[in-house]
Amino acid sequence: MASTGPDLHHHGDAEATAGLLDLAVNVYSGDRPEWLESALLQGIRDSTRYPDAGDATAAVASRHARSPDDVLLTAGAAEAFTLLARARPWQRAVVVHPQFTEPHAALLAAGHDVTAVVLPEPFGLDPALVPDDADLVVVGNPTNPTGVLHPAATVQALLRPGRVVLVDEAFMDAVPGEHPSLTGDSELPGLLVSRSLTKHWSMPGIRAGYVVGDAAVVASLRAQQAPWALSTPALAATLACSTPMALAESERRATELRLWRTHLAEGLTRLGVHHVPSGAPFVLARVGDGVHARLRDAGIAVRRADTFPGLDASWVRIAARPPVVIDVVLDRLADLCSTAPTMP
Fold first, then answer.
1. DSSP characters over 200-218
2. Same domain, 145 and 177
3. What distance in Å separates the CA atoms of residue 300 and residue 248, rounded to the nearest whole number?
4. Are residues 215 and 140 in the same domain?
5. Residues 300, 323: Cα–Cα separation, whole Å
6. How confident is the model at residue 17 (pLDDT cuts 50, 70, 90)?
7. Whole domain around residue 145: which residue ranges?
8. Distant-in-sequence, close-in-space partners of 224: CB < 8 Å, separation ≥ 6
9. Rounded CA gap, 106 and 82, in Å?
């Protein structure tokens, strides 16, 4: 089914044109750890044989104190959305917006009607807005692009007998302590959590992610997956990113990203630019119509937000970067926003 609304297939990488200062893509801007580089290289060496996901699956399961039956490795979180869309003949699929649009697009591509539940600002999740007859609900946490971090109890309130709830936690590893992740909740029927390894570990070209949750629902996704869906390097990276050393580095990065995001948010506040309090490695800011294009003209790429249902062209999403980079953007915004229309 074709969508007549926003371009659901537009993503931040389309904004990051060569030569522009990139604050459109939410990939950690530091170097990959040496142990991850080594794992990727070893994965290339081992690619003379077909990939075997067993060890990496066991490592992810152990990392979240789950059974391997509760885990499915996927080629990035995006593959999980396609598998879920094809897994069942959903009668009423609901996507909570504004959020990452690929789950909505995958459901449409699989021939499903999609009910969009658009949250009003400040974009906090209200389970009462979801229709009672929804048999599938997709929600982000922390949500892209708003950065809102929903309490675990609020997300759990979406669960109903006969309903599957997919929580997209693609940016949860950028939250110090990973609170309030639902990956460890093994006693909640119908719950799925998707994770991405590409952003936090600076490897979007290595398609690596996974789903963890209700084993019966995970099995329905597994039945849709093509053989050898992840390459040997992707499996090696998944295994490497599940070790105690990796978890310690992940926490360090999360703390660093929080400092970068705070610097950005405080700068926007000083400029009088309205923005949404964020728990993610980016900030959604209402800079005014035309500012996105004018930033591009000034050599700066930020993510346009009018492709997210519920938002318009006055909003942009700005990725967290080191303060020296953020200050360049803030200086340019100080000039541009002073001449942009005032937003309510």
1. TTT-TTS--EEEEE-HHHH
2. yes
3. 32
4. yes
5. 15
6. confident
7. 34-245
8. 82, 83, 86, 87
9. 5
